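Long-time lurker. I teach an intro course on protein structure, and each term I like to show students one example going from raw sequence to a predicted 3D structure in token notation. This year I'd like something fresh instead of my usual example. Would anyone be willing to generate the tokens for the chain below so I can use it in lecture? Attribution to the forum is fine with me.
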Amino acid sequence: MRIVLWLLLLSPLSFLLYRLFVDGVEDPIKYTYSVTGGTALTLLFITTSISILRRRVNLVRYRRLVGLFGFFYALLHLSNFVMLDMELDPVSILNETVDKPFIYLGVLAFSILFFMAVTSLPSLFSKYYRYHRLLYVALVLASTHFVMAQKVLSPLQWELLAVMIFIGVLKFLQQTKLVKL
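-- Reply from a regular --
Happy to contribute to a lecture. Here you go:
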């Protein structure tokens, strides 16, 4: 099962690389943003869904792996911004961040994800697991970043947002013990 999961989690990266280097895309930086950002956000919402569905299907043992892959795709997303789009120029990065507020929302979300990735190591998790609830803050920040970054939302993006809101509402209801799933 783990090998299948690894292959599934690496498939967006394989698809991205295929499209970039074999098919060719019109705007590779923008396309990389879309794939890495959308994949990161989707995987992080799947991570929260695993705990929602744990009574019906117990996939909790895979939650850490899915979450770390979500962080991996967020890291690729940020790396695309810093290295390819801004060409490692700190002044350009700062100016772009000030001009476009959705960028610092993404950086805040990434900072939370970075903390969670580091503290998901077995030796640190037992000490910091309570702070992993910050994932919900990161998801709100990342979702807001996603919406603000789009000039126009496509039907697919609306559907993705609807699913994310649905998962968020279910998780809230589960946490407040209003609904037993």
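Some talking points for your students: Residues 28-52 form the longest helix (25 residues). The chain has a mean pLDDT of 90.
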